[in-house]
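pipeline stage [seq->struct] | target=uracil phosphoribosyltransferase | organism=Hibiscus syriacus | residues=146
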Amino acid sequence: MENALRACCKGIKIGKILIHREGDNGQQLIYEKLPQDISERHVLLLDPILGTGNSAVQAISLLVKKGVPESNIIFLNLISAPQGVHVVCKSFPRVKIVTSEIDIGLNEDFRVVPGMGEFGDRYFGTDDDDDSQQVVAPTQLSDQSC
């Protein structure tokens, strides 16, 4: 996603936040390097897949801690699970989410289904062709705002 952004927005300042999923026990911040003036900017937060929302909440929390107003953050992704959308909206109601598709939910491994598989594996051509996916019913979002 970064390469496409650089191609259309030459000269844009880019920061990096790397969050790694450690099984089902949460997220781990591995690396962050952000522009010095991040608090004065509008931020496009790019993540190809929004699953549980935990990584997004951690990344947005870091941006807010660095002084970025919630209303200046636009979270862009390709595919979302309804659970992740709800978690992000509940935690940060002023953050805007732009996604191309909201899939039906998460499987028992907390992966978006039907989804696109592991994005990194797809991108680097290392997916294992494991199509066995069992869906965990998504939470009911009809009575929740966002």
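stage status: PASS
auto-comment: The longest strand covers residues 73-80. The longest helix spans residues 54-65.
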